Amino acid sequence: NQPQILAGKSILITAGPTQEAIDPVRYLSNHSSGKMGYALAIAAQKLGATVTLVSGPTRLNPPAGCEFIGVKSAQQMYDAVMQQVDKHNVFIGCAAVADYRVDEVMSQKIKKDNDKLSLTFVKNPDILASVAALPKPPFTVGFAAETHDLSHYAQDKLKRKKLNMIAANDVSDTSIGFNSDHNALSIFWPGGQQRLAKNNKDMLAYQLLTLMNQHYDNA
Ligand code: PMT
Fold first, then answer.
1. Atom 16, ligand 1: which residue's CA is nearest?
2. Is 95 assigned a ligand-binding role in the annotation?
3. Among 79, 88, 112, 197, which residue's CB has the most CB atoms within a 10 Å radius?
4. Which of 113, 186, 203 is nearest to 146 (CA)?
5. Which positions are annotated as active-site residues?
């Protein structure tokens, strides 16, 4: 039995990849398995929170007891989050959201008639930045997936997106991060930082939520 440190809190979490359609049979996506975000949803509930999980397509079962909203594209994830966010006092953006989508999704399967194929991309809305920019934002926690200069880029995202906290992982290390059962996180908040050493994602979820809760009251 976990101490109910998050009792009375309502937490909105995004998890998994997004899929951006190219034509009726193809899409662009990434290697996110959803494991980190689902571990956060399960841990938050065990610590007493009410949880809504907005998830891109994964192989995982929706965690029992949480409100689950399945989506495919970044735009659908954005719409679901914006519809839900008012009801929550914490937002954690753990999803690997596609930064771009194809400008024009083809209504018919693209044929291989040409040797070269060009696609034009347009930027997707930034869900995390949009949540943090709301007039009354929840306590907003972002993730940062970086392959180099982790601390520099994470702290830049923290400031630029006006977040309360950011959890950075080094996704160039294939033993952690995308699809692994393990991760290691560098957590930054305005004026401080803490390293959460390599561990399984379940344990890291508890550690991150405990840290979030310590900073929640000061926000
Ligand atoms: O799912 P797993 O296999 O367990 O892997 C976990 C993970 C590596 C996916 C996870 O730990 C992680 O790092 N998630 C964030 C991945 C990501 O998209 O990082 P980013 O640095 O590109 O984005 C920064 C932040 O902005 C993230 O909180 C992201 O959710 C958010 N974002 C990004 C783009 C966008 N259009 N909208 C967003 O909200």
1. 96
2. yes
3. 88
4. 186
5. 30
**What is the per-residue pLDDT across 11-26, written as a single tens digit (0 to 9) for each?**
999 999 999 999 999 9
Instruction: Name the closest-CA residue to atom 24, ligand 1.
Output: 144
Residue 106's pLDDT is what? 96
Q: What pLDDT does residue 217 have?
A: 82
User: Kindly report the CA angle at 73 between 41 and 62, in degrees rounded to 5?
Assistant: 30
User: Which one of 29, 128, 204, 208 would you pick to mutate in the ligand 1 pocket, going by the greatest count of ligand atoms within 8 A of its CB?
Assistant: 128
Give the pLDDT confidence of 47-67 residue by residue, as tens digits: 999 999 999 999 999 999 999
Token representation of residue 171: 């996704």
Residue that the structure tokens 């662009």 belong to: 28
Tell me if ipTM is over 0.95: yes
Q: Is the pLDDT of residue 219 over 80?
A: no
127 annotated among ligand-binding-site residues:
yes
Q: Where are the domains of the chain?
A: 10-101+116-216
Specify the CATH superfamily of domain 10-101+116-216. CoaB-like (3.40.50.10300)
Asked if residue 84 lies in contact with residue 44, where contact means CB atoms within 8 angstroms, the answer is no
State the distance from the centre of ligand 1 to the C-alpha of 97, rounded, in angstroms. Answer: 6
